[in-house]
Design a protein that fits this description.
By secondary structure, the protein is mostly helical. The chain has 14 helices and no strands. Helix 3 packs across helix 4, helix 3 packs across helix 14 and helix 4 crosses helix 14. The protein is globular and about 55 Å long. The chain starts with 5 loop residues before the first helix and ends in a 32-residue tail after the last helix.
Length: about 375
Amino acid sequence: MARLNKKTKRLLLNLGFVALLVTVTLVVLFVNHKELNFQSIAEYFKNSNPVWIVAACLCMLLFIFFEGLSIYVIALIFGNKAKFISSMAYSSADVFYSAITPTAAGGQPAAVFYMARDGISAGKGSFAMLLNTIGYTAAIFVIGIAAVCIDPLLFGGINTVFAKVLVISGGVIQSALLGLYIGCMFFGKAITKVGNGLITFLNKIKLVKNPEKWHNKISDEVQKYGECRQIIKQKPVVIFTTLLINTLQRVSQTLIPCFVCLAIKPDIDFLEVFVLQAFVLYGYNSIPIPGGVGAYEYLFINIYMQMFDNAFILLALMISRLFSYYFSMLVSGVVTLTYHMVGGKKTADEDSVPQPPPDGTEEIPPEEMQISEE
């Protein structure tokens, strides 16, 4: 029997870890909530409005579609040849690997890997995903602001302090990330100075080893964002387009539980459910767990408690999670595996399963970051 390489082992370990998290979460839910059982789930589908169930499924597909559209549009704006089908495959790779790796760290390297396999330079692929990351983070920030504007009182209705802390932490983290991205683009020297000072301090108190390695990483990342700013100057419309498409992507994901609730309770306040789900979105993004498994379920139960009874919350949680995470991971995984086997330009030493770079993309020469307008 052929031995598994390190990348394949890492993939299997990630999948195994996610399976363990899912199993533990489901066991806890079913053991602690006797009203939740497979019969009640079957009754939900029997009695629900199929139109809204279809809408929830469609939103799951739109979540994958909009990221692919964003990658495709970024390429077109800068005059590069792009295949729409390939862009959907890059999006699927990002969604799948993000779902099985902590802090979604494997998503972007996987997408860049397939771009490189299709002949797209590492610089152009990394630029597209870098720009998409900025749009993704900004979109979450926008949705949070919109939720607070729609009904700020709903946050006060969350009845557990820890759930509130998670939501606030998520908002702070997303704001800090967005500020960091903007800072790297426009105030690179200051960010580098502060970052290097922090690394030096952490090294002195023995929390960081090999400070030179981290100094170089900070310098490289700041340089990439600075080059990204120069490229955006060529086509400023790209940043607004990316933000719009990423906002549509995040909205489509947020709408899934709204449609799941509407399918069985047609008299609900749709906007209020949207606000509650926006709080869940903020909260579980503050926890570096694949797919937010466990954190999502905890937040959903405690945040939705102010509007629905426990039995319904558990049902809505299971059904919405089924669409937004498990089906999404299944669909994106199948697309990724299919594209790996039959799509793109395959290399001679390619493995039999999708293999993104383990720790991010290769170092990129500055000249490769330039997007031609031919």
